[in-house]
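Hi R.,

Here's the input for the adenosine-5'-diphosphate complex you asked about:
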Amino acid sequence: MPSKPTYIVLLGPPASGKGTQAARLCEELELPHIASGDLFRENFKHETELGAKAKAYIDRGALVPDDITIAMVMKRLGRPDCAQGAILDGFPRTIPQAKALDTALAEQGFRVSITPYIAVPDEVIIERVSGRRVCRTCGETYHVKYYPPQEAGLCDQDGGELYQRDDDKPETVRERLKVYWEQTSPLIDYYRKQSTLVEIDGNQPIDAVTKDLRAVFGA
Ligand code: ADP
Ligand code: ADP
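And here is the predicted structure with adenosine-5'-diphosphate in place:
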């Protein structure tokens, strides 16, 4: 009998390294990396109606309303490449989103498998965000100091231009951190109660965090 799909939810504040780690682990775990922030940014790029609705919230560091976000992520999870599960990065970010995910999975007899919480102090977040650069073409993420590209300003994968996200400006980051502590951090307890929470020290070099995550997944 085929095994049940694996749904991994990566928890952690903005810039804790969720995307960086998911990109490394998705190949070895053979699961798609689904990042709600990337889905919104793809919608901006293609100038969709959803992108236009989401942009005002994202630019001021607020969360996009639950109904829009849940519909977008559920649609993505319904695609055939998610038949064996997914690594979710940035979703859920509120208790109603977590409940919607639980309900949708339960309808198919599935559940969230494991929720690593990548813990990083607020001071470190500010430094990570200020040095974050993203490829305009493929979305690959770098850091000017901690994960620099081989050639400054250009993506190692495809030579695309690296840019700083509008919402990575210091004022917006402070707002995003506030929103994180108010609306997203309650998920830590939510998943602790479901016995899926595993805390990972995210305040270590990228490779060390990957090693700790691998140990959690037995990869
Ligand atoms: P998130 O997806 O949680 O927002 P990212 O993966 O985009 O976080 O990482 C935020 C920034 O910090 C990026 O510039 C990334 O290169 C860098 N980064 C990620 N993990 C680490 C780490 N363990 N140490 C130092 N810098 C990191
Ligand atoms: P980071 O990893 O730095 O937190 P993301 O790329 O995950 O940033 O998200 C960027 C922005 O997109 C968030 O600040 C928020 O405005 C919006 N967003 C992403 N995921 C969600 C979500 N699950 N619910 C509501 N808004 C979201």
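One thing worth noting: The pocket of adenosine-5'-diphosphate (ligand 1) is lined by residues 12, 14-20, 89, 128, 131-132, 141-143, 146-147, 205-206, 209 (CB under 6 Å).

Cheers,
M.
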